Structures are given as structure tokens and as C-alpha cells.
Amino acid sequence: MKKFLFIPLLLFVFTCNQKVGKKTVNASLDPDYNKTLTTVSFGSCNNQNKSQDMWQYIIANKPDLWIWLGDNVYADTEDMKVMKEKYDKQKSNSEYQKLLQSCPVLGIWDDHDYGENDAGKHYPKKMESKKLMLDFLDVDKSEAVRKKHTGAYQSYSFGKEGKKVKIILLDARYFRDDLVKDEAPGRRYKANMDGDILGEEQWQWLEKELSESDAQVHIIGSGIQFIPEDHGWEKWANFPTARNRFFRLIAQTKIKHPVLISGDRHIAEFSKYQIEDLDYPVYELTSSGLTHTWSKPGSEKNQHRSGELIIKRNFGLLHIDWQSGQPILTAEIKGLNNESFLKQRLEY
Hints:
- The chain has helices at residues 2-15, 55-60, 80-92, 94-100, 126-136, 144-147, 199-211, 240-253, and strands at residues 18-20, 23-25, 39-43, 65-69, 105-108, 154-158, 165-169, 180-181, 189-190, 217-222, 258-262, 268-273, 282-287, 315-321, 328-334, 340-346.
- By secondary structure, the protein is of the alpha/beta class.
- It has one domain (39-346): Purple Acid Phosphatase, chain A, domain 2 (4-Layer Sandwich), CATH 3.60.21.70.
- Strand 14 and strand 15 form a beta hairpin.
- Mean pLDDT is 92; it is low at 1-31.
């Protein structure tokens, strides 16, 4: 009789939802949903058909949280049945299931899980695709991202007064204007001077989220890179008006300890940017290539890069040390066998 009762109880622990602040995310074995964050893990570009051997090394770092930064699966379809099957394959993977059992998981999409390579606002199945992504993340049906937000943008808060971390996940797909093709060799896109990324609804929401925040650390995620300007692929700099507006908003609100995180590029790198009228720099941590990276060694200019360009499969970590009263942030890029490729303290 005891064995009979134990099985459904175990299933309940592994499948029930967990509250994170006012948000609901997928199951975790840690019942303290509002814990002080000390290790945040993140990554992107995960092909569900390739080896999922990176999860064991991510879990070994005992993260308090995992953040998907896009291309969480490679769907590339307008057939929602096909897309769901790909999400289901990833979610049922035994190695990924271990992550779901170890910490909460949040996320935003990029293009391949949105549904089409480099797609923006004209992708015809974006409403249906949004639902499938939120289902994959086990976002509760009562949350604002499902009921109020047209796009997939979300925010989450962790920790108590004096040790709060706010996480803002921006949707760089649902409202994004058209990219402009670049005919120059080795470049795909050039600047769309009048184009937008977030759409006015999301801009207004973002301004409110930043201006009303009392967090000590702000982690802002986007599928595409915020700071880099030099490469010819997808990036915020393809929409300079939107990029400038974003950085002006950070300067205007003067949020504490801003950290940008991004994916998409199949590389890892740190970037550092000084915004006008802001007394401290903004850092960006790009981690991309959980299952694949560039097929051969290469180089790429980034005038804002801090440290080396990493062309290996990787995941990102943000360590937060609260012992001194003020948070001390250290960024790290790791890969297979838990090898550390980059590690850097963020100086504010």
C-alpha cells in the first residue's frame, strides 16, 4: 500500500507548477521560489535533434535559475503541429528533464523557435507560436504574458528587499520591422534607420518596468545582441533608432547593475558599453551554441568586446555575491566538461 501511494506523490512533486514571485514557471525541487539568486545560468541555440549532453554540466553549477535566450528548439515551420512535436521532443529529453527538476526555467524566443529564420512581425503564425512557447515553459495561463501582452515579453522578480534581482525578457520578433538586405560581401543586413524592434506596446511596458523597479540587479534578455555594431548579421544595431531608444531608457531610469544577456550568434563573448549620461557601464553577455557553433575557426570584429571571442559550444553563468552588502557580479562562459572559457568581474 505504501508503494502504491509513493508513485503518484513523486509524480506530483515533479509535475506541479512552482510560483516565482507573481509568476508561475515549471517544476523545481526547490520550494523556496523567492530565494536570493546567486547563480543564474543561460544559453541559446539548442537543436532538439542534436546531443543534449550540455545539461549535465549546467546542472553541475547548481544554478538558481535557467534562462532560455532563443532558438530553444529549431522549428522553422508554419505548421503548429510540427512545431509542437519539436517542443515536445525537447521537453521530454531525459537530460533536459533533470534541469527542470533542479531549478526554475524562464525564457524568450529568437527566430527558429519563433518559426522562421530572421523573421519579424510578418510571420503569419506568431500568435499560435507564442502559445506553444509559453506552454513549453509552463507559464501559467493567468499570467500577463498570456492574457494582456500581445507579444511574448515578460518580467520576473526574485529575492527580498536589498537583494532583489529583476529579470526582463524582451520580445525582439513579434513587433519587429523588416530587415534591410546588405549586398556587401560577408554581410547579410544593414541599418533600417526608421525601423523598430519592440513596438509601442512593449516600449511603454518596458519603461514602466524599469522606472518602477527597486531591484539591485537588472538582467535584461533578448534573442539578438544589443551592443555589437560591427558584424553584418541580426542585431539591435540594424535598428539604430530602437537601439538608441533602449539605451536612453536605461540612462533615464538609472537602473542598478544592468546586465544584458543574448544569444543567436553561435558564439560567446562579453561586450561593454558606456551610455551617455550614465555614470557606469552596461555589460552584455552573449552565450550561444548549446548544441552547435561555427563549423570552423574564425574572427569577427566587435569594437565593444571585452575579452576573447569564444567559438565553442557554451553556456553562460552570472554569479552574484551579496556578502559585502552591494552585489558583486561575475560573468562566466563554460562548455563541455564544465571547462571555463571566459570569466570576468563586472565593474560598475
